[in-house]
Amino acid sequence: MALRVTFLGTAGAIPTTERNPSSIFVARAGDQLLFDAGEGTQRQMMRFGTGFSISHLFVTHLHGDHVLGIPGLVQTMAFNDREDPLTIHAPHGTRRQLESLVNALGNRPSFSVRINEVGDGDVAYRADEYEVRTFETDHDARSVGYALVEDDRKGRFDREHAESLGVPVGPKFSKLHRGESVELEDGTVVDPEQVVGEPRPGRSIVYTGDTRPTTETIEIADEPDLLIHDATFADDRAERAGMTAHSTARQAAEIASRAGAKRLALMHLSSRYAGHTDDHLAEAREVYDGEVFVPEDGQALEIPYPDGGDVSSEADSAE
Fold first, then answer.
1. Which of 76, 93, 146, 283 could bridge 250 with an S-S bond, Cβ 3.0-4.6 Å?
2. What is the pLDDT of residues 112-152, one digit of tens each?
3. CA dist 216 to 121, 208, 222, 230, 283, Å?
4. What is the pLDDT of residues 280-297, one digit of tens each?
5. pLDDT at 318
6. 10 Å Cβ neighbour count for 185?
7. Is 54 helix (H, G, I), strand (E, B) or coil?
8. How far, rounded to the nearest angstrom, does the alpha carbon of residue 256 sit from its chain's CA centroid?
9. What is the pLDDT of residue 10?
10. What whole-number distance in Å separates Cα of residue 239 and Cα of residue 207?
11. pLDDT for 313
12. CA dihedral sign of residues 43, 72, 86, 78
């Protein structure tokens, strides 16, 4: 079950020749999700081959570098004869502004666009085997962050032990793996806990959007596999970061360390650091021992399972 993140735009408020404004594409199996849509997002989607078949767009806040790509993206979808509905999730109190953006060109799109207002602690979207949760962020606008959190997976099925107990290869394997007891021909009952291990954690991705450091980011997911955090400034402008409701690379790394994040992506870099990210990385690495990087536009990242496994099992394959 692949989980893939593509960084479409990694710049701060002002784009550069190398970096587009904020936008992140996430693909999980057949689901395609978009987080923020800065100016030019549709072109980035074409350039990096993600396509436009997103079902949900999650907006952290309504500053232009996070939403000005919406009118063009919606129009392009309409030009491509889209019929499937699109849901846009955004902070409470932003519905009217978003409706204006969607209809900015004076023509309603040919497909349904639903706006779902969300707040701290909401489940913005519940899907099969995962959900997208919201958490409070600290920016100078109505804002939220989002966390994609997968459900726990079934424990590993011990085929060898099941066979030693007399369970025949076949449907009874799957029943046991689903948590159901089975009865053998001699009347013996085999319970799931005899042959199935403890549930295994799924994967999680946390995206803050623009924010000062917050404890909510730490609490939203247990040891996230990827934390994508505002790192607009380096230490040389730490005071400005606080004044403008952003974070430094060091502050992002401190949050990642406290959250137990396995990877940290430093996002939303100010244009003043164009072509120079060494300070961001060096300052982050002083306080964070995990993998830290500054993503480039178009960079894609596969998120593996924490235990290195997948969702298939001996039980499923034997049926």
1. 283
2. 999 999 999 999 999 999 999 999 999 999 999 999 999 98
3. 10, 10, 12, 14, 23
4. 999 999 999 999 999 999
5. 46
6. 7
7. coil
8. 15
9. 97
10. 23
11. 41
12. negative
Greatest Cα-to-Cα distance within the chain, rounded to the nearest angstrom: 75
Question: Tokens 């849901």 label which residue?
Answer: 87
Instruction: State the Cα–Cα distance between residues 64 and 9, nearest whole angstrom.
Output: 13
Is residue 4 classed as helix, strand or coil in its secondary structure? strand
DSSP state string for 65-100: HHHTTHHHHHHHHHHTT--S-EEEEEETT-HHHHHH
Q: Which of 31, 36, 65, 210 is catalytic?
A: 65
Write down the residue that tokens 């040389």 correspond to.
236
Tell me, what's the pLDDT at 24?
98
Quick check: is 65 catalytic? yes
- The secondary element (H helix, E strand) that includes residue 318 is helix 314-318
Structure tokens at 189: 């009952």
CA 206 to CA 105: how far, in whole Å?
Answer: 33
Give the C-alpha distances (Å, rounded to integers) separating 61 from 139, 145, 188. 9, 9, 59
Q: How far is CA 126 from CA 132, 240, 283, in A?
A: 7, 37, 37
Q: CB under 8 Å, gap of 24 or more: what pairs does 242-248 form? A: 242/212, 244/140, 245/138, 245/139, 245/140, 245/210, 245/211, 245/212, 246/139, 246/210, 246/211, 246/212, 247/208, 247/211, 247/212, 247/213, 248/283
pLDDT of residue 314: 45
Q: Which of 197, 196, 199, 169 is nearest to 184 (CA)?
A: 169
Q: How far apart are CA 109 and CA 6, in angstroms?
A: 26
- Residue 129 has a pLDDT of 94
Which residues in the chain show pLDDT less than 70? 308-319
- What residues does 113 pair with on adjacent strands? 86
Residue 310, pLDDT score = 52
Which residue type sits at 101? L
CA 195/CA 36 separation, integer angstroms: 44
